[in-house]
Amino acid sequence: MELATVPGLTSALRAHGYQVRGPVGVGSSGPAWAAHAPDGARVVVSVLDLDLPIAARRPALVRLEVLARVRHPHLVPLLDVVEIDAHRTALVTAHVEGPSVGAVLALRPRWRAGEVLTLVAPVAGALEALEAEGLRHGDVSPENVVLGPGGTPVLVDLASVVLPPAGTPGFAAPDQADDVFSVGRLGLAALGEQPEEPLHEVLGRACAPDPVTRPGLVELVRECFDVVDAEPIELPDPAILARTALARLAEPTRHEHTVRDPHAARRRRRALGAGAFAAAVAIALGIAVVTSQERPDAFAATEPLASELADAAVALTHRRAELLSALASERLEEVAVPGSPAFEADAALIERLAEHREEVTVRAEGVEARRLGAHDGLELVLVTSRVQVDGGAEAPQSTVVLALERTPEGWRVASVLEPDEVSAASSPAGPLAG
Question: What distances in angstroms separate CA 347 from CA 120, 186, 253, 320, one per listed residue?
Fold first, then answer.
């Protein structure tokens, strides 16, 4: 991702003494950037677009002002707010050194109950600090909790506090207004399939469908301590964790789509392209493509297209692995639509891979693809593969859905979706595949 994709960011930060080093990932508000503060400390920068209707902008600015005052040992601190222009603002937060809970779960999918308590209680405390100021985090998930030195949980991604998203699928409350639900889901994800554990029942109550029956944050922590004693979170060997993290990064990036204010949605449409935006919103709202196993009569006319798309998806998957191995960010337009979520995420990935001194070879193996259907100008293709990083553990098979856009240069990836984001529902756009 070029720094020019966020016009004015580097100059605005430089005027305040910050030096931008490059993209480090994609958060709820878009790309996140690594930077150095005037004192040399490492920080993380995210950009908020506050070009909202007055009715939505005013509460967002109030939340931002209040957030700057909140301090808690398990909440990443907001260090600075830098105005980029009349509508865009950069949030500068501390850098937390350590793996995300999601990265550790990839190696240890089942934690001891005492470890889960050590995760849940501090996160609940951070959320209580926000709640005391009339705020909520809005996107508590394994990727938004970093295990700092000694395995200390720290809740990150403060952009979701200012511009609340719909949350990460699987962790957001159905009513989209309760962090308690998300904490319960976070704990259950770490606990794994251990229904015999008393803690499982406690966390399950936090995820009750009826918000009235859920405990408050303080009550939830107290009930957890009633059934289990806390113990340190066991972190995997750093070398193994680093290799696994590289392997996870090299997989086709999953993007969790959230829906915010419609005015902001129109801006994202301009940035990503009407087709990519419409597909993202449709999927976020559950309006997905039918994946019936029946072959309707209309399918016969689309067989050449289905074959073309399958071949393109396989070729793009292999080509992406080659570009990752070569750290060729300047050639990402060969596989992804410039400016799209897929393009930005892979550019950030290459920046992170480049930080490792060892040569890294990425290979895509056993790639298979099948067209699912079309929606608003995008073709959805189901791709199954193993993305192998040399020197890492044997890669498991993974499945994603590539949203492909036809460009003058050929098919390119606009976004990457989880298969369960594409549910069985009626779609008027195009015939069925399969």
Answer: 33, 29, 11, 11
